[in-house]
Structures are given as structure tokens and as C-alpha cells.
């Protein structure tokens, strides 16, 4: 997500901040900014676009000072423009804040602060933190550290905050809740950053803050406190990583890092979308219940992995809303003369928001008078301008070419959208929606649990890395997972792999099964479990080696599996969010066993902007 750098010391802060921000650039960002404290004033510069835009702006300004914060922004709330770029100031311009994460309850806090006379400049969730801290300082007359501590008991969601103030020009105040932030240990200066690469020029000794911790960093010193204000002493960690290893967070590849980020991504995509009364609120989807009530079909268009997310969502939408869903590859859609009108709701899915075919499909739908909602990971991307409504996935920038965390985020977002439609149209009982939300809230921990079987997945990948062909099969939502599992393997290992609806196998593809062909089978679906089991028997009888995904403790599956990946149980329509994870790991480890670089597969581009 966003990059944060903070510095306090004897030297000029600006070059340190810019260097640190450059070291965090690899994560992707859409705007950048710095704030410095000098002579009782906060001086600010921020610009949309590349760091060079900010550096250009800085040439016209004389910004200096020995206390400062810098930020590279990956937009979540508000377009990527100059005003929404961080840092954000309070009304009085006495304090500045940078933030990584999502403040879930920003709307309510903003309303209260506006009512109390605070004037907001940006559309960001972050700005509420600046005004909230200002209001606490005015009300309580406490220190900045104490005001930040009091503010974080009000803020909900995920955040790493760094705050500076003209009134305490020798310190950085830092707070962490879910989003990472790290103190750099130094005897001369005070340092903080969201990632280790920004700290490496100064130190290899770091203190990663834990959730609920607040720190006060001064030149050559730091103190850490818990939420109650009691001092704590988190351990100092010594890192040996070089710059490249630090960028990958110690993982060998970005793809692996991104797979392991998924618990947080799932959580971030849910954050802020269920209000305290249990209603689903999607900020940028604001059709009236009346308009949504008139929708008589839903059309989902997307390419590649996004299409597979759409495949899974068809099941959820139809089951929960009782509306028929058509699913189209965006590259086919506009050439087949589809039947669309103002009562057809079109969902365009594109992590990049720039895929040429998906954009053309969305534009076509608009010309036909259909309302369009885009599901994308990139704020300000083309699809957000073309669609009438947008649902952002909050996966953060994805560097590996093969989509992993953006796929999981799409699955989560599409489930939320399906539940939202069901809620607005009254097609699902509120108790059932609430039950599903409870299950969704358990997913981050369950994804974590699935990641813990990486050893088993790696062992299986070693055994099958030389295979020539793979078959993946599933039923229902498991079919979508099978398709995505096969695509991941093809993309990065260059092994021929096909995903099938398991019932279809005997209509042709079973002819491919011979001694030793690996077949990946999704046995996590409850409804068609016995049928899937029969399909596994069929391929085993013809010599297939079976790699089976089944629920923990499934002894029948164990008997039929050459390799067994055990998955925790969730609601059936949510199962792709868990089942996809071992298949991503499997593709990754197979590619590594074959000596390939998973981050940059041949012939592929991250965003396909041509037809
Ligand atoms: C995913 O691993 C692929 N690289 C590719 O299929 C991708 O999903 C497709 O190009 C669509 O991209 P989008 O989500 O940005 O539209």
C-alpha cells in the first residue's frame, strides 16, 4: 500500500525523505508529498504522479527543516490528485499526518468534526486523523503523543500513522493498527518508515511496531507505549537483507510476498463496508433501491483471472439475489450482439482498470443504456471514469505479473457486492446476510491457516514439477477455482494445464488421462461432494495422480489423494477465497522447481492495454 518515511535529526530532512520515498517506489504509487517543520510552521509540497513531479515542484520552493515526513500514496479514498496526496494538515496548519491503511469509520468522524467547525480540504479518510488530533489537543491541552494515543481509540480500521507538529519540533509520533510501520534504531537521528528499504541507508537495527503500539521518536532515541499509555520494550531486530531482499520483505519473489499478504488484503477489502447496524455500505455504489429493484439481469464481463473471479461471483449473485447472471469474456462480449438495456446491470472486473477489452465492453454496455459497476484495484484508472459506480478492491499494488492478491480481493469484493444487491432488493433475509458477514470476517485468519500448509504444497510441487500436462477439476464455484489454478500454473511454469467442470471430463477430456497424469481436484464443495468423489475415482482408475483439496479431517478424501491439501471450512460460496491460495502456492513452487522467475513470466504483461 502506501509508503511512509519520517526523519528527525541534525541534518536537513528533505533529502532523507526523498531518498527513502525513492526506495519505496517499487511498491507502486500514484502521488507523493512531504511536510517539514521549520520556524514554527509546517511547510508542505505534494503532487500527483511520479516522484519527479514532486521534485519538480520542490525546485520552486525552499523547503527545509530537520523534522519531516514523506509519503507515496496508493489511493483508496479519493482520486489520486494533488489535494488528496499526503501529508494532510489540521485546520490550524500546526500538525501534519501521513497514513497507510483504511480508516473505516472516517465518515462518522468527519461529520462530527465538520459539525464542530473543522474545514476539510481533501476526500481522504486520512484527513480525519489530522483534525481529530487537533480537536483533542484543543480540548485536552495534552502532549502530541497523548493526543495521538487518545485519537486511536476513536479510529477504527487499519492504519499506520506518523504525525509531526510545530509545537513539538523534535519528535515523530507513530501509531500502528494492522498496517506495518518500523522504527529505525540510530544513535544520532530518529527514523521511521513503512518498509525496511527506506531505513537501510541508516541502520540495520529495526523495531517493528505491534498492533496497538504508539511510539515517540526523537534524534537518537525512541519510546514505545501500549494503548493504555504504559511503556513497552519491543525487541530490536537486526536485518541482514540487501536492498532487493528488503523490497521483497525477505521473500524470494514478489509473487510469494503477495500471496502471503492475502490475509491483510481480505481484511482490507471488507473494512469499512459493513456499518455498525450490520448493513453493507458500498461508498461508490449509490443507486437507489428503486433503481436496483428494476434490474432484471446481471452481466459480468472480464478477462483472464478477473473473469475467473466473475465465474465464481455468478454463483453468489444468482443464489443470493435470484437474478440471472450472464458471464462474458470481455474480448467476446461486444462482438456477439448481446441483449442489454437499462434493466441490465453490468459488472466490469479489471484489477488494473486498464484492460482494453474490458474497457470496450464497459463502454459498449453504457451505449446500450445499461448501468455499469466496475470492480478494480486502481483508483483513478480508466474503468473508474467509464463506469457509473465503482467498487474498489483494497489489495494494494501488485508487482508480480500473475494476479494473486488482487484475485482474492476481487472474490471478496464481488461477494460483498452480491450481498449488497441482495440486501437492497430484499432477496435475502437480514439474518442470513449477517451470518455470511460473520463468515467473511473469519476469512483473514482462515487464509492464514491455509498459508501454513505451504510445506505440504511445496513437497507436492517438487514431485510434479516435471509433468507435461495438468488437469484441474471442480464443480460449482470449484470449477472457477480449477480454471484459475490451471491459469496460474500455465502462466508461470509454462506447463500445459486445463481447468474443467468435473462432470464434463467424461465428455472428452478423460481421454487425456493416462498413467501418472496429475489431476488437481476440488473436493471442498458440500453440495456436489459425492459427485466430485466419483470423478476423482474415475481419474484414479485410469492412472491419474491426484492432488486433492478437501476440508480438514476429510478421511474419504485422504483415501483417494496422492497429495492432500487440507482447507478450513467456510460457507460454500466463500470457499474460492480459501481454495485458491494453495493453488497459487503450488504454481509458484512448481515454477521455482523448474528454475523460472515467477514475477516476470514470458510473453505476459501486467496490464493488457491492446485488444
Ligand atoms: C492474471 O494472472 C493474468 N496476468 C491476466 O489473466 C489478467 O488477469 C488479465 O489480463 C486481466 O487483467 P485485469 O484484471 O487488469 O483486467
Give structural notes:
By secondary structure, the chain is of the alpha/beta class. The protein folds into three domains: 3-247, Aminohydrolase, N-terminal nucleophile (Ntn) domain (Glutamine Phosphoribosylpyrophosphate, subunit 1, domain 1), CATH 3.60.20.10; 272-444, 3-Layer(aba) Sandwich (Rossmann fold), CATH 3.40.50.10490; 453-593, Glucose-6-phosphate isomerase like protein, domain 1 (Rossmann fold). 37% of the residues lie in helices and 22% in strands. The chain contains 20 helices and 25 strands. The strands form four sheets. It has an eight-stranded antiparallel sheet, covered by helices on one side. It has a seven-stranded antiparallel sheet with strand order 5-6-7-8-12-13-14. Strand 18 (344-350), helix 12 (356-367) and strand 19 (372-376) form a beta-alpha-beta unit. Helix 4 (127-140) packs across helix 5, helix 10 runs parallel beside helix 14 and helix 16 crosses helix 20. The protein is globular and about 80 Å long. The mean pLDDT is 94. The protein binds 2-deoxy-2-amino glucitol-6-phosphate (AGP). 2-deoxy-2-amino glucitol-6-phosphate (AGP) binds next to helix 10.
Which labels suit this protein?
611 residues; alpha/beta; Glutamine Phosphoribosylpyrophosphate, subunit 1, domain 1; Rossmann fold; 3 domains; 8-stranded antiparallel sheet; 7-stranded antiparallel sheet; 25 strands; binds 2-deoxy-2-amino glucitol-6-phosphate
Amino acid at each position: 500500500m502506501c509508503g511512509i518515511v519520517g526523519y528527525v535529526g541534525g541534518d536537513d530532512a528533505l533529502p532523507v525523505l526523498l531518498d527513502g520515498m525513492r526506495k519505496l517506489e517499487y511498491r507502486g504509487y500514484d502521488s507523493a508529498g512531504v511536510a517539514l517543520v521549520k520556524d514554527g510552521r509546517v511547510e508542505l509540497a505534494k503532487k500527483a504522479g511520479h516522484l519527479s513531479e514532486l521534485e519538480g515542484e520542490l525546485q520552486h520552493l525552499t523547503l527545509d527543516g530537520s523534522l519531516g515526513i514523506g509519503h507515496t500514496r496508493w489511493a483508496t479514498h479519493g482520486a489520486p490528485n494533488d489535494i488528496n496526496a499526503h501529508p494532510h494538515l489540521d485546520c490550524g496548519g500546526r500538525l501534519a499526518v501521513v497514513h497507510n491503511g483504511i480508516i473505516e469509520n472516517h465518515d462518522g468522524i468527519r461529520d462530527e468534526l465538520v459539525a464542530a467547525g473543522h474545514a476539510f480540504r481533501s476526500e481522504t479518510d486520512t484527513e480525519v486523523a489530522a483534525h481529530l488530533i487537533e480537536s483533542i489537543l484543543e480540548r485536552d491541552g495534552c502532549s502530541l503523543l497523548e493526543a495521538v494515543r487518545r485519537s486511536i481509540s476513536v479510529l477504527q480500521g487499519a492504519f499506520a500513522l506518523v504525525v509531526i507538529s510545530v509545537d513539538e519540533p523534535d519528535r515523530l509520533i507513530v501509531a500502528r493498527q494492522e498496517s506495518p510501520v518500523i522504527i529505525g534504531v540510530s544513535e544520532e537521528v530518529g527514523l521511521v518508515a513503512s518498509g525496511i528499504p527506506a531505513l537501510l541507508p541508516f541502520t540495520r537495527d529495526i523495531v517493528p511496531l505491534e498492533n496497538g503500539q504508539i511510539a515517540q521518536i526523537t534524534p537518537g532515541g525512541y519510546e514505545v507505549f501500549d494503548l493504555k499509555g504504559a511503556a513497552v520494550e519491543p525487541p530490536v531486530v537486526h536485518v541482514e537483507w540487501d536492498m532487493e531482499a528488503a523490497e521483497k520483505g525477505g521473500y524470494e519473489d514478489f509473487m510469494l510476498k503477495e500471496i502471503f499478504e492475502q490475509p491483510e488484503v481480505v481484511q482490507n477489502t471488507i473494512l469499512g463496508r459493513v456499518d455498525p447496524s450490520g448493513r453493507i455500505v458500498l461508498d461508490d455504489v449509490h443507486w437507489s433501491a428503486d433503481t436496483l429493484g428494476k434490474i432484471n439481469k446481471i452481466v459480468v464481463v472480464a478477462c483472464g483471472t478477473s473473469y475467473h473471479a466473475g465465474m465464481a461471483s455468478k454463483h453468489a449473485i444468482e443464489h443470493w439475489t435470484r437474478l440471472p447472471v450472464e458471464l462474458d469474456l470481455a474480448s467476446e462480449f461486444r462482438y456477439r450482439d448481446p441483449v442489454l438495456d437499462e434493466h441490465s446491470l453490468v459488472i466490469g472486473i479489471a484489477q488494473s482498470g486498464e484492460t482494453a477489452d474490458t474497457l470496450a465492453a464497459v463502454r459498449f454496455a453504457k451505449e446500450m443504456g445499461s448501468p455499469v459497476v466496475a470492480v478494480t484495484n486502481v483508483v483513478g484508472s480508466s474503468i473508474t471514469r467509464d463506469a457509473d459506480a465503482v467498487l474498489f478492491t483494497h489489495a494494494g499494488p501488485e508487482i508480480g505479473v500473475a494476479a494473486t492478491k488482487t484475485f482474492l480481493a476481487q472474490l471478496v469484493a464481488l461477494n460483498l457486492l452480491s450481498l449488497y444487491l441482495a440486501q437492497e432488493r430484499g432477496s435475502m433475509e437480514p439474518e442470513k446476510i449477517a451470518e455470511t458477514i460473520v463468515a467473511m470476517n473469519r476469512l483473514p485468519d482462515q487464509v492464514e491457516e491455509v498459508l501454513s500448509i505451504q510445506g505440504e504444497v511445496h513437497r507436492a510441487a517438487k514431485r510434479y514439477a516435471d509433468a507435461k500436462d495438468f488437469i484441474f477439476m471442480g464443480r460449482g464455484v470449484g470449477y472457477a477455482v480449477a480454471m484459475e489454478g490451471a491459469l496460474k500454473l500455465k502462466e508461470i511454469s509454462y506447463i500445459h494445464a486445463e481447468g474443467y467442470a468435473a462432470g464434463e471430463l467424461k465428455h472428452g477430456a478423460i481421454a487425456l488421462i493416462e498413467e501418472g497424469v496429475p489431476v488437481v481436484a476440488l473436493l471442498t464443495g458440500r453440495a456436489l461432494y459425492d459427485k466430485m468423489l466419483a470423478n476423482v475415482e474415475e481419474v484414479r482408475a485410469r492412472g491419474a495422480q491426484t492432488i486433492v483439496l478437501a476440508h480438514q479431517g476429510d478421511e474419504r478424501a485422504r483415501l483417494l489423494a496422492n497429495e492432500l491439501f487440507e482447507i478450513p471450512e467456510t460457507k460454500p460460496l466463500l470457499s474460492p477465497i480459501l481454495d485458491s491460495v494453495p493453488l497459487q502456492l503450488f504454481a509458484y513452487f512448481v515454477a521455482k522447481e523448474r528454475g523460472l522467475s515467477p514475477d516476470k513470466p514470458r510473453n505476459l504483461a501486467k496490464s493488457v492495454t491492446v485488444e
